[in-house]
Write a structure and sequence with these properties.
about 300 residues; alpha/beta; Rossmann fold; Cyclophilin; eight-stranded antiparallel β-sheet; 15 strands; about 30% strand; elongated; binds flavin mononucleotide
Length: about 300
Amino acid sequence: MNIVVLNGSPRLKGNTAAMVAAYREGAQSAGHTVTVFDVCRMNIAGCLACEYCHTKVPRQCMQNDDMQMIYPALDEADMIVLASPIYYHGLSGQLACAIHRIYAPGYPRKLTKAALLLSSGSKGVYDGAVYTYQHSFLGWLHLEDMGIFTAAGEENKSPELLERLRAAGAALTDPDDRNVARLVIRSGDVVVRAPLNQTQAARDLMNRLPLSVAGHDSGVDYCCELKEGAFDEVEKQQGWTNGDVSVADGWFAILHSGQEGSDKYRVMPVAHLDEAENALIRMLPPEATFELSLEEPWK
Ligand SMILES: Cc1cc2nc3c(=O)[nH]c(=O)nc-3n(C[C@H](O)[C@H](O)[C@H](O)COP(=O)(O)O)c2cc1C
């Protein structure tokens, strides 16, 4: 994926730069493209609040400075990394200017992920920067958090820190291959994996794993009794797609067949098996026990 790093440190051989270099090295080793902008070496003014971008030309900033070099890169980026020394308990002023100028395009286009790298003299001075990151980037822009990495005092440039950053960069995966948790379903020799979705029922199930359930094949699904878990009624849907795994109303079900006539039923899909894995489920005996566990690829 394309990663854009906004480095807000003026010291290009400093502590923040070392964090950026290690993270970049790791990400590049995993095949990602990393573009670093040293915003302190660029001519980037603060936002003028002229609202040109919202009233005249959508997404376009009328200030013709070096931010115009960053916009095209961000337009193509899957991930943004903010890197900064802590100045007076916050991000550097130069980085703050670049961040405020994101107001014009507003983002995301392809942007789905973010990370934060912070260097400081003392420990425990990150609340301001972290607040900005969490509220403006994760909350407002809805980006997925790929981690907040900090280094205080002697931690800066330490081999342990740089190794941790290299490893974090190397562990980044493409947006299509997101760090999705999978439900592992084992019955005898058959093991299948179904990516879990973002519903309340899926989160609830994740927290209850591992589990063992047993049930019989009704012809369209394996229906297994499972103690009532939390789910949001509005996330229920009419009908299923073959391969859906549903949890609600006291039942765990693997809906392996019968999609054509399924719209008579309301189900609560939490995960989905692909065709090949669903075919394995269809081959199980009429009575089956399923061991359910969680696969977390990022761990
Ligand atoms: C203007 C200024 C303000 C700073 N404010 C803080 C601060 O509030 N808390 C802190 O722990 N360190 C503070 N520092 C120290 C830097 O955050 C620290 O030295 C950091 O590692 C510098 O990173 P760099 O090498 O990338 O420049 C400040 C440094 C400067 C120059």
